[in-house]
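Retro notes - structure team

What went well: the batch runner handled both jobs without manual restarts.
What didn't: labels got mixed up in the shared folder, which is why I'm recording both outputs here explicitly, each with its sequence directly above its tokens.

Job 1
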Amino acid sequence: MPNRIHVAIRTAVLAAAAALFTAAAHAQVSLNIGVGVPIAPPPPQVEVMPPGPPGYVWAPGYWAWHQDRYIWIRGRWMAGRPGYAWVPEHWEQRGGRWQFAQGRWEGERHAHAARREERREHGR
């Protein structure tokens, strides 16, 4: 009798662990931890967008903070995701400091609203 209980418990635990692992494997998690930079980033550099492969989207270049200065990260082509739009990396001013916002995929409707908001904030 105790063996059947142990087998049933072990089976239930393994099934639950497998379900959690499968769910975690399909989840997309983004974590952005930053302390902020006291200096505003320079204006974006002008890049010539090279021809891209079909089904790819252009992710524009951006300024990244490296040690004690900004460095330019060149734009790149990324495989597109149907139903999603790329919201590019950018900087946001918060409380007198500049916070980096990592690029991300968003549903088309949300991404267009985010781009409009970003253009409004930066006067573009």
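Job 2
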Amino acid sequence: MTKKTIKKISILFLSVFLISAFVLPVYASADYDDEYDDEYDDEYYDDSYDEYYDDSYDELSADDVDAYEQWVKEGITDSDADTSRNRPDWWPDDVDSFEDFHNQNAPRIVDNADLFTDSDEAKLTDLILKSIAATNADLVIYTDTTNYGLGNQMCAADFYQFNGYGIGDDYNGSVLFINMDPNQREYYTAARGDCRKYLTQDTINDLQDSCYDEMKSGDYEAAMEKYIQAVTGLFTTGKVPESFGAFMLRLIVCIVIGAIAGLICIAILSSQMKKVKLADKAREYLVQDSVNMRVANDFFLYATVTRTKIPKDSGKGGGSSFSGGFSSHGGGSFSGGGRSF
């Protein structure tokens, strides 16, 4: 056979191989699926199933139908449908038609996680009311064992808005949400109105630092006392007040660093000095007739001051999350941040 004939035969065998390997299995699989579906329908499917489901849907209440349509509208998937059905009791019936309102009688401590005793709540409420008077900004502490599938950030903001918290037309104030869910344990601060401008990455870190040790050790009443003091200072002066312990530590560090630097400079200058023989009188140190000072003047030329901010490493919880701006489900504008513990 010629090379041309051999080439044609090879191409033919290759074509047959490709058809056998790819086309026939697909066709066979499709045919098998059709046969299997027919057998499955005959054995397991009955027209009564259609009737059952139709009747069941007809028996749903109007509220159930509205709730289902609302879930679809909000883009809730099947995976979190159960969470959606378990909204908190403060969740509005119709989020789309929700309008902001002021609730003067709303409690400033809502302790669903049972972290405080009655006396703790009374003491903390008194501190909160004093803070509100000093800052003209609302302050709320909310604890729970879940965030209802909303996420800690959104749960804090929604709780604040849907319960009517806030002062003035911009609903100025903040909420601290403590989520005790073991899988999402975090304390999160969300602020609305004028208070938003005070929350930055640095101030959020300082706020969380102010009570981190107490939060981690479980001394929640003491943690909230420190937090209220810190947030009051932030909303009145623009910065979180430094604790006495932190101030003393910083002072000691500065003194030690200054002393070490001074000793190093003295050692260097001393090594550069020429040693002379001790004399009884000071003039004996001078070379005779080498100094003739008649007039002495001091002229100030200039001064240069360089300041460098020393970055702080709190070493507490690995830092805080921060969001400069986000919207709640009610449409309110918030900023905030939190830290796990």
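One thing worth noting from job 2: Residues 21-60, 71-83 have pLDDT under 50 and may be disordered.
We'll revisit the folder naming next retro.
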